Structure formats: structure tokens, C-alpha cells
Amino acid sequence: MSLKDQITADMKDAMRAKDSERLGTIRLLLAAVKQKEVDEQITLDDAAVVAVVDRLIKQRKDSIGQFTAAGRTDLADKESAELKVLEVYLPQRLSAEEIDAAVQAIVAGLGATGPGAMGQVMGAVKQQLAGKADMALVSAAVKRALAG
Q: Which InterPro entries does the record match to this protein (predicted)?
């Protein structure tokens, strides 16, 4: 079963359970997936669906930070609940050590040195680790690898 099929099945389960918060979040996710498919005129595979989920999770984390800073805990709690629903659809994340090892291997493979090679290394890293790691952690690991 593809990830998109799993999300659709979960939507049906949320409908049957009358879980309106979960249902709303899953519908939002499916709408984002459908929008991407329509915009690019393709059918998304699991990796592309994970990228959409990743983007939505990043948006939720940013919103939580802004709502918390503004003292709107009610909205921050709503975003946190959506974040928990979305995280279910991500694959197992790599640990910091695994990210460092992968980045070191890519830097060595490319022969990259210095901060000027950041774009080249990030391009290669994104292809290999997309959906498997938090890109903020990956970016920090690339900076460390190129600095020393």
C-alpha cells in the first residue's frame, strides 16, 4: 500500500470514528498532495508525498513558535495537535550521528572543501537524505563538515 493510499484509509477511519481534528488535518494533507499533483501534472510517489508532509510539518513548527511568542497558546495547541497527526506519515528519522556520517561520506565523495561548496554538498545531501532527516540538522552537519 502506498503512502497516499494509507493516508486515504486513515481519513476514512477518522470519518468513521468522528475524530474531527484528525480528519481535518488529514484532509489538509490530502489537499496539499492533490495540489502538488495538479500543479506538476504528475502522480506523486511515496518520496514526494513525504516531501509534502515535511513541508507541512515545517509550517506547523514555525506557526507554533510564532503563536507561543505572541501568547496564543490556544492556536499553538491546535498546531501541535496537527503536527502530531502529520508526523505519523514520516519515515523513521536518522540520528544525528547517522546524519554526520552520511554528510562526511558525501563531502569526501565530492571532494568539497570550504563554505563555498555548501550549495553543491546540500544538493547531493538533499537527494540522498530527503524525508529521512530533518534538513535543519543536515544543514548544520554540512556547515560543520565544510568548516573543519
A: Asn/Gln_tRNA_amidoTrase-B-like (IPR003789), GatB_Yqey_C_2 (IPR023168), YqeY/Aim41 (IPR019004), YqeY/Aim41_N (IPR042184)
pLDDT tens track for 81-95 = 999 999 999 888 888
Domain that holds residue 30: 3-87
Q: What sign does the dihedral 127-128-132-135 (CA atoms) show?
A: negative
Smallest CA-to-CA distance from 145 within 125, 115, 120, 109 is with: 115
Whole-model pTM over 0.70: yes
Question: How many distinct structural domains can be found in the chain?
Answer: 2
Same domain, 70 and 132: no
Residue with cell 508526523: 87
- Rounded to an integer, what distance in angstroms lies between the CA atom of residue 99 and that of residue 133? 7
Does residue 71 sit in the same domain as residue 130? no
**Alpha carbons 23 and 142: distance in angstroms, whole number:** 38
CA 96 to chain CA centroid, nearest Å: 16
